[in-house]
Structures
1.
Amino acid sequence: MKNKPDILEVLHRATTGEYCTQKEWDTKKIPLTISRILKEHGLAKTCDMENPVNMDMELADKFYAAGYQAALELGYLCTDTDRIIAVSQEELDDALKHAPSELTVGEGKDATVLKARTPSDPYPLKAATSLGITLSEDIYADMAYLIANEREVDILEAGSLTTIHGYEVLSGTPTETRMGYEHGVMHREARRKAGRPGMGGMGSISAITEYGQFGAYGTPGGFRNTDLALILFPSEMKVDYRTLHKVVHTLNMGGIMKCDSPGMIGGMPGPAEGAVISSIACALLSYAILHTHVGGGEIYDVRYLATVNREGLWALSMTNQALSRNTHTLVHNISNQVSGPGTENLLREIAAGVSIIAASGASLTTGPRSAGGKLNDFVTPLECRFLAEVAHAASPMELSKVNEVVKALLPKYEDSIKEPDLGVPFQKAYNMETLEPTPEWEAAYRKVKAECIELGIPLDA
Amino acid sequence: MTTQEILDGLKQAVIDGDEDSAASFAAQAIDAEIKPMDIIKGAINPAMDVVGQAFEDGDAYLPELILAGDAARAALDLIIPTISTDDLDGSVQGTVVIGTIYGDAHDIGKNIVSAILAAHGIKVVDLGINVSPKQYIEAAFAEDADVIAISSLITTSLPYHREVINNLVDRGERDKFFVVVGGGPVTAEWTTQIGADGYGRDARDAALVVTQLLEGLAEGNKAPLAAPILVGALEHG
Ligand code: B12
């Protein structure tokens, strides 16, 4: 039995693997391999637009087999060296066998335990919030504290910083290294202030390059090695030295990590079915190549800049089901909303995406992507709370029930996905003196929550 | 082969993203003395319209878009040198160097913008990701470019936009290239503040901005514009 490659062996393969340019990888290797595998497994055109939640478990297992084959045929391209990092079947199997199926994030009574799940598993999907939406420095500490203070939220990710002490941060320079450190310290302080000092964290989302991560993770006062190191790498199935630096750094710190990269619908793997295969392959390889503790299975639709459209949701259900049914790994996912804070539709998009992730068997979700994640200060703790509530409540739901719920929610927002209501920033959605949601935002939350309960998400249980 | 057969062959080669076949049909078209503008209008433009529409409708995906752009370029590289200036009749020509700015690895949006610009017959030189201000400028000189297009999804990489422009100004060469910016955190205000020449919210907007700049260039406009061309800027609370 061959073990999964040691990290030094991975780095060796990054310089000695098969030569392939990025252009060749992006426009030939990925699309041709994926479309051939789709055909070989009879999976082309299986996306069911009428039923955004897959309910055919045999189909999910077929997608898994296709993704597994793609993982072995493709590997990852290292874009710094134009070399393919490939693994053998024994190495992949060994990595999957030894991947954790349970993981404690954080310390003591405030810690969160992630467990491998299967569809409709009563053990809840855990929620890390918010995503890396950039925050003005003057509200950063309050916002991180308010999110940590939402008791339903399991793990704190919080927003991204772009200035420190009023100075512009420049990616890839020592300002980023310093920012990483300050981010880590503020992040810890937010958890302490919320009375949850041992709460798990994930970061650093502000670390654009490895420098921010070196400053943030494992440094005294910053992210602890019981927090998840956040390591994202480029789609489709590409890594670079930045990614690998972050991986090696986490291993050096004796830490734990979440590594992932979305399969892009409309991108190199083509249709939703292709993105599912690419996403599964990418997740499987992350255990063998990146030594991750928590892997992905993410999906993003580049035509809608979202995952809460029909094809996105269907693909999300399929990848999560395929991975959770066929491995004992900890699957992470994101459901990429587009509407902004203060709007009812943001909450509906959260309900649709997160209930699918929950019932399809993932272990961890991060979100929300309020206003598509693009606008500074456009996120509030209230939708973070709602996301965590849905994650927990929808976990044991039957897939057919979630399908009904999502089919009822979709018509309310799908026509506006391409031109969503971006809502208002934190400063307008919250009363800045009391740091509480405005009555309007609170009322929208109550309204959509009642709507979801009525539809069958047990948010009142 | 008849003129129509050659044009149909070229059109299909571009749709199929087949560079070699596109170049070979383009050579045949030139040999058959079909007017260059007739080749472009009769084969290349309609082919890119087909692929562009298929991408929007979800029937084609990014690789097809990129490969069709490459095939169109292979044909245009042969056709363009045969065009005399009086033949140009309004169709825009120009070279854009594009890349994702330093620190930033997000390339999907940049790839779509590149492919759409190529679909408009513009020569696109893609510098990839993590491109430093200096690399944009050096490449722009090396390629004799008209436009530098910068894609950024990361806020802490935005200051590098300003550096591209400041470098050009300090070298006394700001008038050599138009600078166009786009991507998530880029706003109309930012574009104006740093003195760039254009902003577009999506790939279609990018094509609009760049073609307007190139048309302006043909009419004698020079960089920097007094006020940037802003297309599709978001308005929000
Ligand atoms: C996919 C994605 C990734 C993928 C990228 C995969 C790839 N190969 O590109 C991965 C997982 C690698 C990734 C990594 C990270 N990401 Co990211 N990512 C995204 C996401 C979800 C979608 C981006 C995308 O591909 N969109 C699809 C394309 C089609 O759209 P687009 O890029 O916007 O391009 C369109 C327009 O903007 C425009 N356009 C683009 N370029 C240009 C250029 C010109 C000249 C013009 C005119 C127009 C134009 O036209 C395009 C086509 O219509 C965004 C969220 C978002 N809403 O943007 C976050 C986002 C960009 N990421 C973010 C962050 C923080 C990161 C990380 C730093 C996280 C981390 N700590 O590791 C890393 C950064 C790594 C690095 N060094 O760059 C933040 C950025 C915050 C900020 N403003 O600084 C965002 C906004 C997420 C969020 N806050 O919710 N990410």
Note: The CA atoms of residues 145 and 190 of chain A lie 4 Å apart.
2.
Amino acid sequence: MFQRTAVNERNTRVQMLVRLLFGMMTALLVLPVLIILGLLIHRGGPALSMEFLFDEPSNGMTAGGIMPALVGTVWLVAVALIASVPIGVAAALYLSEYAKDNWLTRAINLAVINLAGVPSIVHALFGVGAFVLFFKFGTSILAASLTLAVMTLPVVIVATRESLQAVPQAFREACWNMGATRWQTIRKVVLPNSISGILTGVILEVSRTAGETAPIMFTGAAFFLPFLPESVYDQTMALSLHLYVVTTQVPNVPEHLPYGVALVLILMVLALNAVSIGFRTWLRGRKKW
Amino acid sequence: MVSSATDVRPTRSEAPEYGVRPLVRVRDLTIRYDDEPALANVTFDIHEHEIFGIIGPAGSGKTSFLRALNRMDEFTPAMEFDGRIEFDGHDVRHMRNLYALRRRIGVVFPLPVGLPMTVYDNVALSPRLSGVRKKAELDEIVERCLTRAALWDEVKDRLHALGSLLSGGQQQRLTIARALSQEPDLLLLDEFSIAVDPVTTMRIEDVLKELRDELTIVLVTNLVQQARRLADRTAFFLMGECVEVAETEALFTGEVREQRTRDYVEGRFG
Ligand SMILES: Nc1ncnc2c1ncn2[C@@H]1O[C@H](COP(=O)(O)OP(=O)(O)O)[C@@H](O)[C@H]1O
Ligand SMILES: [Mg+2]
């Protein structure tokens, strides 16, 4: 009764083959990441030191540290977040909790998705036109961060909308049925159960913002500026631009230096991602339904 | 269409207004989804302090009726209704403050919806939304509502555990406690026993019989015998039509106007 038939045999063979194939694809995917990380640690690791992290660049950027760029990236990311998170979350709340499902809402949703596909250099040009020139912020952290904010807004909106829509409709109806307004329902039921997901999206956005070069290049990031910024109206160095500069624009840079910059940037992004994964795990553990 | 004195059961003699004042008046109600009628030209009254049963096969428009009464059409894009539903003398279609309307109407869904918060918060939510802040007052409301829903003894030691960790039957009683915390005048129950074990169903039925003294209940049920056990009067909905409304006992003793009602009640089709 449990004899293997020819069909069984073939199914088993196909199944093993498919599994092998998928496994190989996965390995292919992981390989470049491992190689990049390995190379960066191998070549850039020796560059890491207290001085590297806490000194200004010196000798025409061929020596010294990256402090102004590191601090500048933190500024850029922080201001971009302050601008994009409230707007993005509010827009997502409106689209998902208030707007009727009509052609206008669908058009806006489509626009949001398309905005995510616009190349970053186009955002850079928009940033120059809008923030640097029209609003007269000049090349400054403010202009650069707002450009980053516009660019990452779709990410925040989509991530937020998805976490909002993961909250079962039955919870909302139960709330509305007891006479709660939409806002009361959002505050008491929808937000408490989606906030962790929203924050996860925000952290992912942060890591993306940290690595961008084009949008800040013409709007606020400086080639070389060995001071720490004091307000959002200052220009600043940034890790991503600094990496571009020391790899392509400056002669006689010792080999370990650009690798060191890249390593710091990647470690920063990885750390943020780790936080976001930790957050998500915590959220799953706390899931209440 | 005010009911005659013969509607008054001997046991209800202590409630003199019974049978005199309709709490809900439905006139020529037609409900549509995308112009597709789900309920057509329905007219009847629901009296104060009665249990009004609604029976009928799936897709007859029972749930749609409850949703219209509670003005949940606001949240259902395709849904529209014509005709008149009066609640306590006010046309619900032209009511400005729908929140106030919904606060006076408690709803229990077929599947229990334990909100993702503690047992205590589930029951305290509605009072809090309407502005009750004092802890002592909330404690009192929570205990009273859980007791009335026959759940207090089972949860009094874990009021601060998540409501969604309760069993299905307990969650349904939690939902009833939450509806009672609104201090509603009208309680709508939509096939509440679908996901509940028979013993819990019986306990909830006992609760409903007691609640009849305090409020009016609309009991939508897929169990004909449940309507017989609980309802004072029963409406039979069939494919978007209200076939008839009568004293429940009359339906079951064969005093019906329509053969279709007799067939359904006797289980000859479903
Ligand atoms: N949200 C909706 N959108 C479109 N049609 C619906 C919706 N809800 C119910 N209907 C339709 O209305 C009719 C009555 O449904 P319903 O009121 O749920 O009946 P019942 O509760 O008696 O099973 C059905 O034909 C159903 O398909
Ligand atoms: Mg139904």
Note: Chain A touches chain B through 21 residues (CB under 8 Å).
